[in-house]
Amino acid sequence: MTEQDDWGREFDHRWANSAEHKEPSARARMLAARWRENPPDPMPFRADPDRTAPRRSSWVSTAVVLSCVAVVIVLLGWIQMRALY
Predict the structure, then answer these.
(1) For residues 6 and 12, what is the distance between their CA atoms, to the nearest angstrom?
(2) Which of 1, 9, 28, 51: disulfide with 24, CB 3.0–4.6 Å?
(3) 16 and 8 Cβ atoms separated by less than 8 Å
């Protein structure tokens, strides 16, 4: 028997996928046993809107960015002016 035949026999996915009974993974069995005793609380797909942090309006963010740019420009101008004297 050649090595390629062994490889094909060992990793025959068609044979594995055609199995009538597929055993769940160990984690699936563990969760099923745990949830049988005490099922998990229902959880919404998305978080409730009132639980999220309030969002600032876009003009506040724009004002913060523009003021930071203005401070950097003034600071660079002041440093450059002091370097001339």
Answers:
(1) 10
(2) 28
(3) no
